[in-house]
Amino acid sequence: VITLSVFRRQISLSPTLQAVAKASASRRGLQVRFQQQLNQCLVDYQPSDTLEVHEDLLRWCIWQFSEQVVFEPLEELGIWFNYSSGQFLSPGYPPLYYSRAENRPVSPSKTAIAGIGEGIAGFLAQRLYHCRKLARPIHDFPDVVMVAEDAVIYLVESKASTGLPESLRQTIDAEVIRLAAYASACSELNTRPIRGLLVGTALNTETEYQAFLTEVLV
Amino acid sequence: MKFLNSPNGAFLYNSLISLLSVQGTPNTLIVEAVLTEMVKETMREKALFDASFQADPLQKTLSLVIQSIHADLGQLKLEPNLKSYAETTEARLKYGSREIAELSKAASEYGEFWAAPEPQISAQGVPYQVTKLSLGNQFSGILGFAIDGSTFNLAELQARYGIEGHWFPLVVPVEEFIFVVDYSSVLVNLKDVSPGQWTKAKDKLTEMMDTLIPP
Fold first, then answer.
1. What ipTM describes this predicted complex?
2. Inter-chain residue contact B138 with A185, CB threshold 8 Å
3. A41, A79, A118, B138: which could form a disulfide with A65 (CB 3.0–4.6 Å)?
4. Which residues of B touch A132 (CB under 8 A)?
5. Beta strand B185-189 with B177-181: parallel, antiparallel or unpaired?
């Protein structure tokens, strides 16, 4: 069983900020301005829930929400934690050892991490926001389109990492721009209310994850 | 549209009709995403069940779905222009459909490894399917799912099994089995139990399917 600690925050975009968000998609200068204004809206995460996630439940969510057919991602991550904690003291973690570049550090399987992150994002969107999957776009943005019981459409984007949670949170802050711009555009082109949901999952150990949820209200 | 092998197909189709039924501002980006998902889901099912879809499954499926949408919206006196949505769907699924066509040919060649789902009807008259599912070394078990958009009655599940989760997906322990229950489906991993226990697990799953409520 995996212990998942959930932290949440909300960002509400004013009509002016939404307009800047949309325009920033095509104007580099506006991206900087949008980031500055957005930084002022970013609030701290608050501890929300601690959930126990059974591995079979997580596997089901990975099958439902991952873009790829991921082969045993939980076991892959287990091997990574064994390797990176020095239990083998033997070099050669995949990909192929002899294809490794001079300055490229050894890193865990991005496929496994992305798959687990997408599974956790879908799980939390269902469990905490009562959403149901409408689409899992291939090669497109966002990761999942979902609908809640009250007909609100959720645009769910996932980021996951085995690195430090602080570094993941910085990645999320940068990603908020993209999601905010897209949610703002969707909001104008759709009659249903739209929300963005960014789920950053820090895979700390085999059995302890943290999820940082940013809900973007437009 | 009716589905045979998708726990989510009926829900997707009904959602699509609901999104397209709105007068005035179209739900453009969301409709694009849902139509593409709908065609992908239908294409997967057709490529498995209907050999005539193995060649060029995308065009055949797209045509089938668009016709069905027009028929249902026609009854509501609506005639939406779906051309641009269809073009977007075609572009997005171009490569995925090739993969599905190749996989469906492989499934035909190795047909003995693939078992068709077993149709069942719950005590409340809800149609559902039961199938074996095997993925990697970590999962080998049974999946049961409604095909008409029926969903599980959460309150009844909580009362009957004393579970603690407040929403789907849920873990429901029943004796030595761990069932994972989602909106319209339930699966149980039997990797670590003896072959003799499969029948017992299937009976427990059948009992659980009686808590499905029609859409």
1. 0.90
2. no
3. A118
4. 11, 183
5. antiparallel
